[in-house]
Amino acid sequence: MRTSSSSTTPVAAPKGPEARLVELIDGGLVEAVMVALVDAQGRLKGKVFDAGVLRERLVRGIVSSEVCGYLLGTDLGMTPADGGVWSWASGFGDVDLAWELGRARVLPWLPGTALVWARPMQAGDRPHALSPVTVLEEQVTRLAGAGLVPMVGLETEFVLVEGSERDAERSGWRPRPATVGNLDYALDLRGNVVAVLGELRRVLAEAGMPVEALKLEGAPGQVEVTFPYGPVAQACEQHLLFKHAARVVAERHGMSALFMAAPFTGTGSGLHLHLSLHRMHDDGSDGAVFAPDGEGELLSETGRQAVAGLLDVLPVTGPLWAPTVNSYRRLARDHGFAPRRATWGWDNRSCAVRVVGHGSGRHLEVRVPGADANPYLAVAAALAGVRHGIEGGLVPPERARGDSYQEAKAWPLPHDLASAVKEFETDRTVAELFGVHLVEHLASLSRFELDHHAPLVSAAEVARGFAQS
């Protein structure tokens, strides 16, 4: 471990938000520092700095760096977008990253490593408009203008499989789930799965991100993790760190953590958004906006408007909450615990928007995003829908009182990425909520995903056509 680097630098240690990071480096607790941003697909991207080198920068007041700007404009496979903001014609230039040193943190799952969040910037020292973080902040700011503060709790599912990515490649991309059968709510866990979940829970708690609950789900190898309620930016940040930790911990135990929406036929992994709105009063008290107005009511009038806005916006914002071709496999069948229509109801898991909670804890569970969603964009879509409903004073349709898969009059959610992109880029409400420039940018990323899959022949096609065509 590094003992101290202070003797190599004649400059005094800084006293600002970077001071704590310098202390950790000087104390030998940090040997490497990840400077990370959120890319277009909702992944951590960036550079790993030697701690001593980064310390030298900090004491000299250097609190920024650069990365190729295409990180804000790639598909899942890191295909560079030859058009728009970044292209071969423009030379694929850099964007500046402003380090947010006040939010630096040690990563317990990677001993000796700290992470510093970095914000992409554009001309005029403004947060970059195409950064997912900025997209979400814009929606939060719009709600704040109406005196409303959103809170969110993220509930995500992922699948543990045996072996590494290389093992999966050798198997023809047919990895084996780490458990067999339906172990939903099972408490008699065994073997490496216990070790993975135990270590994951421990390192997240050490990082100041304790999980609310952790359980096995209904599909083989499937795990569900729920985090407590909090500010939306914090919830999304925690989600990305959680995914990073899950992958590292799983690999340490000879497994891989898959965050695909549909890693296997018949298996769907979601990213459910538990969402509420609050109006903070002058005395510091919290006014829960969705709490019912009267006895026998499900929601307040504002809550009903929020539901109506969500049902209006979710069907036309598919690329924000279902960004890949695989995303729509999760939505492909009835009674798969993933919604297929824009419906709402009380404690009804067949609905796109499920109303749950009691009294001041009444909130909305938005069940449409898959585990592969960028949390910043998925939450932004939900908040935009809520804002649309409240600003327009919208009235929701009659709530579903049974199997909402049978609600033939309800607006269907997009059934594939191609139809989702078409709805997204042509809908007037979407353009008003997010701006034409952002809509064009995100639509282009979805087309890269479609272009990648278009010429590929799947094993299922070969199996079906081998002797029959």
Topology:
Elements: H1 19-26, E1 32-38, E2 44-50, H2 51-59, E3 64-68, E4 94-106, E5 113-122, E6 126-127, H3 132-144, E7 149-162, H4 165-170, H5 191-206, E8 213-216, E9 222-226, E10 230-231, H6 232-252, E11 255-258, E12 271-280, E13 286-288, H7 301-313, H8 318-321, E14 344-346, E15 353-356, E16 363-366, H9 375-392, H10 417-426, H11 428-434, H12 436-453, H13 459-465
Structure characterization notes:
- The protein has 469 residues and is an alpha+beta fold.
- The protein folds into two domains: 6-123, Ubiquitin-like (UB roll); 140-465, Creatine Kinase, Chain A, domain 2.
- It has helices at 19-26, 51-59, 132-144, 165-170, 191-206, 232-252, 301-313, 318-321, 375-392, 417-426, 428-434, 436-453, 459-465; strands spanning 32-38, 44-50, 64-68, 94-106, 113-122, 126-127, 149-162, 213-216, 222-226, 230-231, 255-258, 271-280, 286-288, 344-346, 353-356, 363-366.
- Strands 7, 8, 9, 10, 11, 12, 13, 14, 15 and 16 form a ten-stranded mixed beta sheet that branches. Strands 1, 2, 3, 4, 5 and 6 form a six-stranded mixed beta sheet that branches.
- β12 (271-280) and β13 form a beta hairpin.
- It is globular.
- 44% of the residues are buried.
- The model is unreliable at 1-10 (pLDDT under 50).
Structural class: alpha+beta
H/E element order: HEEHEEEEHEHHEEEHEEEHHEEEHHHHH
User: What amount of the residues lies in strands?
Assistant: 15-25%
At the fourth level of CATH, the homologous superfamily of the largest domain is Glutamine synthetase/guanido kinase, catalytic domain
Stated plainly, the CATH topology of the largest domain is called: Creatine Kinase, Chain A, domain 2
The dominant shape is: globular
Low-confidence stretches: 1-10
Number of helices: 13
Domain GS catalytic: 132-469
Protein name: Glutamate--ammonia ligase
GO molecular function, one term: glutamine synthetase activity
Family: Belongs to the glutamine synthetase family.
